[in-house]
Amino acid sequence: MKKQLLGIALSSLSLFSYAEMDIYAELLVGQSSYKLDSQMKQGNKDYNYSTSLDATSYGLRLGLDISEHFALEIAAHQHGSADLDYVLYASQVVTGPPDAFGNVDLIVLDPKFDVPYDTSMPIELQSVRLGVKGQWKITESMFFNGRLGIANWRFNNFIYQRPPDNSMALYHERSGADIYYSVGTDYYLTDNFYLGLEYSLLNVSENFNDHELFEGWELVDGSFEHAITDLSLVVGWNF
């Protein structure tokens, strides 16, 4: 997906290669806020969690002005990392009496005997974005802008402590594509150098399970809804 986005960006830039247009580069530094709603299922037990996490974020963006009011952009963002802490409960199992052939059955005890396990899931998100910026002049030095595009996001490998033996379960990185949008302002200090402030939003949905990775009892599966907002300081240079 990232290669496709890059190919689209390069193709778009080539369409305007013969025109007299401005190229700009921007560095973004700020804070990402994760709002997570999660549903997890372990055996016959369901868990629902909602929480908010904050992390330092940064990004690099390149743009090409195609008119007075519109530009094409491609950007890479690191939305920081944070830990999601929650509790899972492992059912307790005992062996029953042997039958006539010496075989024994496993008996699951009442849920009141479940054992709690503190669990931590590191969350680290990156995205590559391709979109369009619209901008409008407020004063001679200040501009208002809005952005809309596609973000190809990727979660790094994450680990959680897996009951009942508190072992570590590892998941491969996950990726997808969703719509992002943002609003912001830029203030030119010189003809080329400017500072800005930007607020952006990206919604990510993710499903997971460990049924294909682990054999055994009490496997965990579920889904997460991530609403990632970024408030960033923008440092830019118009070439």
Automatic annotation (TrEMBL):
The keyword Signal applies. Keywords: Signal. Gene3D superfamilies: 2.40.160.20. Residues 17-211 form the Outer membrane protein beta-barrel domain. InterPro entries: Beta-barrel_OMP, OMP/PagP_B-barrel. Coiled coil: none annotated. Residues 1-19 form the signal peptide. This is Outer membrane protein beta-barrel domain-containing protein.
